[in-house]
Write a structure and sequence with these properties.
By secondary structure, the chain is α+β, with helices and mostly antiparallel strands. The chain contains 11 helices and 10 strands. Strand 9 and strand 10 form a beta hairpin.
Length: about 375
């Protein structure tokens, strides 16, 4: 097993680390406090290739591998969990599915714009009654002689506030028990499509989540991605990559929490000595460091599997489960070590604690990941 980075990987990640340190980290607190979508940082990320890390250079992407992508997301997440998720949406949920399933015309129109930052994308699968049970879509796309008319409501559409196009999923054969789902590229300025005001949340603020209301939105048949009835397959493939991205985001959050705890433990004195001398603190730090490294290795294994295998369902579920729950524990232990200094509103650890929690919910809760893992290791077909 070779864990060394190639010169191309190292060069790319060096630029990402500099960007995270010099531009993202100084803005992270303001993003959290204001809840404003960081458009300027997203544009800068596009210039570095972070909006199309694995997309071929022929389409304007960086042409790199999933391992580099995961390491880049972790690096950004150590500075800002919000920007990291925006990158995951753009890469894993929009650009990569379009590169894999899209037609040449779809790629020429949207993929080049997405990976260079000239356009932002969003992913609209979840509905009020179709979250974990994503197959039972209520949004309908009815075919007529002019294409499709889409009617329904999507919820928690990340980056939807700033996006130019959305990959939207709808039933194209109503009454088919959730199987005949198709995917469509829908410009967000389409007549009949309405965005809600941005949805606030306790963590990862500034993500630009909105609900989308589709009231007979006209979509040309040429903007269906992957073919009729293949939308659910496309969505599940995209979510595998997204789970790897969110695992990397979670590790970045957890590592940032560990960094804060280490610095505080060395600096803070009680009973005449640094608290890093106390075994109780040492054990908490040791546990967090070990769990983070284990999660990181699982995530890199999943990213490598994505590059080598047709599917990485088991690997991505394991990585996302371990990384998200590890991030939560890391932030919790960091808060315990910092005590009142961490519990203060506006502290870095307070933000990390709030940001970590949602990694156990999206995209697919920890319970869903355990269900997927169990089905895979038991050979259960669902």
């Amino acid at each position: 097993m070779d864990l060394d980075l190639t010169p191309a990987q190292r060069s790319f990640l060096d630029h990402v680390e500099a960007f995270a340190r010099e531009r993202v980290a100084p803005a992270a607190a303001a993003i959290d406090q204001s809840g404003v979508f960081p458009r300027e940082l997203v544009a800068e990320a596009g210039k570095l290739g972070l909006l199309g890390v694995t997309i071929p250079e022929a389409y304007g992407g960086a042409g790199l591998d999933p391992v580099t992508y995961a390491l880049a997301v972790e690096t950004i997440a150590r500075a800002s969990a919000t920007l990291a998720v925006i990158l995951v949406v753009q890469n894993s949920l929009v650009a990569e599915p379009l590169a894999r399933y899209g037609t040449d015309a779809q790629k020429d129109t949207w993929l080049r714009a997405l990976v260079t930052g000239r356009a932002l994308g969003a992913f609209a699968l979840s509905e009020a009654q179709a979250g974990s049970d994503a197959a039972h879509q209520k949004t309908i796309a009815r075919l007529d002689d002019r294409g499709y008319l889409v009617k329904g409501r999507k919820v928690w559409v990340a980056a939807g506030e700033a996006a130019h196009v959305v990959l939207l999923f709808a039933q194209t054969q109503p009454g088919s028990e959730g199987r005949a789902i198709s995917a469509f590229l829908v410009p967000l300025d389409s007549p009949g499509l309405t965005r809600s005001a941005p949805i606030d949340s306790i963590g990862v603020r500034g993500l630009g989540c909105v609900d989308l209301e589709c009231d007979d939105v006209r979509v040309d048949a040429e903007w269906m991605v992957g073919g009729p009835g293949l939308g659910f397959k496309l969505a599940m493939w995209a979510l595998e990559g997204c789970r790897i991205g969110i695992a990397a985001q979670a590790i970045g959050i957890g590592q940032a929490a560990l960094d804060e705890a280490l610095a505080h433990a060395r600096r803070r004195e009680q009973f005449g000595q640094p608290i890093s001398n106390f075994q109780a603190v040492q054990f908490m730090l040791a546990d967090v460091a070990t769990e983070l490294d284990a999660a990181r290795l699982l995530t890199l294994k999943a990213a490598d599997a994505k590059a080598r295998q047709p599917r990485a369902l088991l690997e991505s579920a394991m990585a996302k489960l371990q990384a998200s729950e590890t991030a939560h524990r890391a932030a919790d232990k960091a808060l315990q070590i910092l005590g009142a200094a961490g519990y203060r509103r506006g502290s870095v650890v307070e933000r990390l604690f709030r940001d970590s929690r949602v990694t156990e919910i999206y995209p697919g809760t920890s319970e869903v990941q355990r269900m997927v893992i169990a089905e895979q290791i038991l050979g259960i077909k669902r």
